[in-house]
Amino acid sequence: MEEDKDEESIVEDTINGILPGLGDLVKRLKQHSPELQKGIEDADREIKDRIKKGHSRKPRISYSCSVRTLVPESSEGGGTRKKEPEFLEPVVDVMDEETAIRIIAELPGMDDEDICTELDNGSFILEAQRGTRRYRKIVPVPHNAEMVYRRYKNGILEVELKKDGT
Known about the structure:
By secondary structure, this protein is an alpha+beta fold. The protein folds into 2 domains: 2-52, no CATH class; 92-162, Immunoglobulin-like, CATH 2.60.40. 27% of the residues lie in helices and 30% in strands. It contains 4 helices and 7 strands, in the order ααααβββββββ. The protein has helices at 2-6, 10-18, 22-32, 34-52; strands at 92-96, 100-106, 115-120, 123-130, 133-140, 146-153, 156-162. The strands form 2 sheets. It has a 4-stranded antiparallel beta sheet with strand order 1-2-7-6, with no helix packed on it. Strand 6 and strand 7 (156-162) form a beta hairpin. Helix 3 (22-32) crosses helix 4. The chain is elongated. It starts with a helix and ends with a strand.
C-alpha cells in the first residue's frame, strides 16, 4: 500500500498531461481535501481494475462526421442534368389584429417585381422567384379578407389584410 502512495496516480498523471502543472495543484488540493483525495483514489482504483481486465490505458476515441449538401440529389441517373429547384418556405410572421391580419415575410435577394401575392378562397398565397431561388407560402385567412396594404423593402414583405365587416 505504501508504494501506491509514492506512485503518481493515473488521474493526476492524466490531468498533468492535459495541462502541465495542474497535476501539482491537484496534489496540493488533495492534501487539504479528504473528499478530493478519496475521489481520486476511487477513480484510480477503477481505472487500474479496467487496465487489469484488458482495457487500454489510453481511451479509444472515434470521430464521425455527417455531411449533407444543400443541393437535392437527383433520383434519375445522369448526374449532370440540373433538377428544377424546389420552393423554399420563407420565414413568415402572422399577426391577427382586431381589424386586420398583418403578414410579414423574409424574402432575401428578391426585388418587388419578383414577388406575387394573392388571396384565393380563404388563403393568402405568397410566391417569389429570382434566378434559382424560389419561395412559396400559403397562409390560411378568413374568406372575406381583402388586401389593403403591401410593402417590400430590404428583403422584408409586409402585407395587411382587412377583415370583412371592420
